[in-house]
Sequence to fold (1008 residues):
Amino acid sequence: MIHSEYGPLMVHNSLTRQKEVFTPLVEGQVGMYVCGPTVYKSAHIGNARTFVSFDIIYRYLLHLGYRVRYVRNITDVGHLTDDGDQGEDKLLKQAIEEKKQPMEIVQMATLDFHDVMKSLNALPPSIEPTATGHIIEQIRMVSQILERGYAYEVNGSIYFDTQKYIKDHPNQYGALSGKKTDDLLEETRDLNNQSDKKHPTDFALWISAPKEHLMQWESPWGMGYPGWHLECSAMSTKYLGKTFDIHGGGLDLLFPHHENEIAQNVGCCGTNPVRYWIHTNMLTVNGTKMSKSLNNSVSPAELFTGEGSIMSKAFNPMIVRFLMLQSHYRSTFDLSDDALLAAEKGYNRLMQGLKTLEQIQATGTGQTEHDDRITNGIESIYGHLNDDFSTPQALASIFDLITMINSLNDGHISSAEVNTNSLEELRKVLAAIIHDVFGLIDVTAGASGSGQSLDAVMELVLELRQQARADRNFATADLIRAKLTEAGITIKDGKDGSSWSVQS
Amino acid sequence: MIHSEYGPLMVHNSLTRQKEVFTPLVEGQVGMYVCGPTVYKSAHIGNARTFVSFDIIYRYLLHLGYRVRYVRNITDVGHLTDDGDQGEDKLLKQAIEEKKQPMEIVQMATLDFHDVMKSLNALPPSIEPTATGHIIEQIRMVSQILERGYAYEVNGSIYFDTQKYIKDHPNQYGALSGKKTDDLLEETRDLNNQSDKKHPTDFALWISAPKEHLMQWESPWGMGYPGWHLECSAMSTKYLGKTFDIHGGGLDLLFPHHENEIAQNVGCCGTNPVRYWIHTNMLTVNGTKMSKSLNNSVSPAELFTGEGSIMSKAFNPMIVRFLMLQSHYRSTFDLSDDALLAAEKGYNRLMQGLKTLEQIQATGTGQTEHDDRITNGIESIYGHLNDDFSTPQALASIFDLITMINSLNDGHISSAEVNTNSLEELRKVLAAIIHDVFGLIDVTAGASGSGQSLDAVMELVLELRQQARADRNFATADLIRAKLTEAGITIKDGKDGSSWSVQS
Fold:
């Protein structure tokens, strides 16, 4: 049974550029494929944002009652540094730099990625296939594309024939990315170093490997390795079928990666693979793109430990997740110290609200304006989530309810004015949305174990330190810092007071 | 630089049935392959014991200074219920039972396995290759064995020709398991249902798949899947070379799995793949084999949560790991409530000893009998670990030193009787052996994470309170007591100073 009492789920489809009613291919079941990470270095916070977004989509589909097969791949071969057919192989470059076997790099980066996603409380996907684990399937797909005449061989490499494809499927190539075919042909005509290709828009399906290339496999065309776009076509087809419901990924993958995926699937099987394309927007840091040259890069680990240059303190992964929820997945997500500090306050208010909700009572039996507010609030939460998973608006509705909960708690609304059943329903819905759908765990002081005591005692210590400094009692202030350092606790002084974190 | 100041490392080689000096193929480097889990259900405690044993071997090799490439595979296809060529495929059986895609079962079981190993503080291997990820390599190996005449095709399946192999390599087949060739031929002659095979000892390298088989791949012999023994030969060769240093696994894999691995490698490449075979012994529960019919099964999760029928309480994974260390890897490991309770005491005594060691001081400058005891103790620890990784004996030597540490602490030995340098050396060695090699983390009350931090911070708070009182700064002293009470912490003032406790 799929819950639809609050209206249908609307999903923004990148292909049609509009919101559409979500109707899966098989009733009650959803097949979802999301382009996973290229595992050649530690997890990237931009990736984390993308996968948290799809985690919430996955969780909401489960919450609505769908049986979901969620496939997210691991790219462990063949992804080049320029995201196209040129440049160095990211993974091999790293392997050579670290003097390791490529699969040792893959192992480290995969474990790190899993750790970060676990910290952010993202559910693991149903299947997590690797590119190297599906070379046979990729070779078969290349063979099928060759058979159907949409690819050609040059010196042991196979290229997709975009001109033949465009001729046979007018207005298909470029439809997802919104690029006009003529523009596409035009804009890439000047590129050099593509001498093997008949046309600049053609792309590699299989790449002939020089003898020294560290990762290569036998194929009907000699030793080589798959082009980067191929794995997703092969693995989504294998695990979800030739046509499936949702394909997701970061916006940067729209072109050429996803455009080429469609071309490969149509070229191989004559079927348009995806019914709903979902793309998450980019991440910025203090309003600008994250880049090495701007020195504004920050890793998830740095966020969680407070070591990054842009942050004043450590932020619990749950704060980071909460901040992600405050942006819609199709909006740019801006990371900044101020935003994180504000998110921390919002998150604490939310968790405190949930705790208060557990404690308050309602004794009413009628239907008052407050009960209406609860009913409307719940309707509004689902309405926003059904509107292309609008978590920021759903959160706003939740905060409106939290205000009411606080009023009930402090007596501004009397318990007799709220119906017992309304309050029970509110408890059920908020717990489900906040914990199950948003995936937020309560990590505030007093939520778990000895962390509670430490939080309270550290608050006291920071107060004593503040007082010692005000009294110009530097001996005591120094003693406090020294002892805390010994205890592995770092203090950071910011303009809004001091914060602390335990070194792991 | 490999540390050899305490003599050479001796390793019991299952192939020669004796301890041999360990000399790796390439100086300073070790290639180690361990047969990993078949991922079709939750992690098994017997497996956990095997992998903790190899984790300690891995850690000790690293401690000695070796650069180790540790490969442990994931069997995600083709392992049949009777461990031979007959019976049902464990993974497919589970997939059909749970109505899931086989790779969904693989994902759940792999994540569970990783969680359990992380709880037990086992380091991840350098590479963790999957059987499905190496179908091409396996097909190539079958082709090579066919080319060299040690295999034959029947109806799309390929079998290893043991008779031809035995003829060409007298006394080779059975050398590892100690089975005499004549006995081998004799004991399996009666088996039925092996009509495709020329001889009962022959085993499948590649198995022709019926159309409905859920996992199958294209091969030169039609659609099929690899025989179970093949993956380890193919993956160890790929990542460690045709000959490598150590191959490990549970004793139950000695025959037929490892015997067949050797045959495959010799048949394919003419090379004996492994220089040192290491096998861990079996696990029993209350002295008997764990089995469904005896209702004495216990999973790692049950051990850690105390839900298992055989345990009186939950045991921290570190207690389980400590108990594992108390048996030599070549001895049967018996799990029982009594053993776990005793291990808990031993573990606590060990951790307390380490803490005491941090606090005590030595002021001596000469060389006393106590210094000799330290020197001999350290020598003895390394002597035992160099003697085929004898953790139980090394632990006994450590406990002898703990007794001495306690004597120093309670004044039975005066601090002037122990040389400062001896004590420093003892601290260094015990921390390295217990934390780095044994992989034991201190999880005793007040030890780790925020608990540890709380101890240190409370020490500071009590010091500040003491100072405030000495300064007759009663406002501060009162503030401290009030805030601590709020935090649920009670202070008790005694004649030896103040102590504190958290109200539960």
Summary: The radius of gyration of chain A is 26 Å.
